[in-house]
Write a structure and sequence with these properties.
Elements (H helix, E strand, L loop, with lengths): L14 E4 L22 E4 L2 E4 L2 E5 L2 E2 L11 H18 L3 E9 L5 E7 L5 H7 L4 E2 L11
């Protein structure tokens, strides 16, 4: 059975390339414990897993989805919208480039190019579903 995703490592700077076999959105991650679950999924509007490796988009913050992390219900609703928007953007193909740094929680910071060359973080910012870091307020609950 052919793997639905393609994976390349370029020795000059770890580049992860994902190519969906169809234009279907990548799955949303379910649950916190990743071992034994779908190794490629999107958990929030700025984080996900690619073949078992966790990544986070650099320089942006998505609204939280988890009830214990979200500051208000509006943030949770926007968090789901943000996650699903990123899933749709990634559906036609993407390239993750590791920056060589991790965030405070140990997630590998990456930049993501979409199939058409657009920067995913810039597109998410333009679409209003993430905010720039460092953030000065929780804009999702301040509305």
């Amino acid at each position: 059975m052919r793997n639905r995703y393609t994976f390349w490592i370029v020795l000059t700077g770890f580049v992860l390339v994902g190519s969906a076999a169809s234009a279907a959105a990548l799955p949303a991650c379910v649950g916190e414990d990743r071992p034994g679950r779908d190794p490629t999924c999107v958990s929030t509007g700025d984080r996900g897993w690619y073949q078992g490796a966790r990544w986070r988009l650099k320089d942006v913050e998505a609204p939280q989805i988890s009830g214990r992390k979200a500051a208000c219900r509006a943030e949770q609703v926007m968090g789901i919208r943000s996650r699903d928007h990123l899933r749709a953007l990634m559906a036609r193909g993407f390239t993750l480039v590791r920056t060589g740094r991790n965030d405070a929680e140990g997630w590998s910071l990456v930049t993501m190019k979409l199939f058409d060359g657009r920067d995913a973080a810039a597109q998410l910012m333009s679409d209003g579903v993430v905010q720039a870091l460092p953030k000065s307020e929780n804009r999702w609950c301040a509305r």
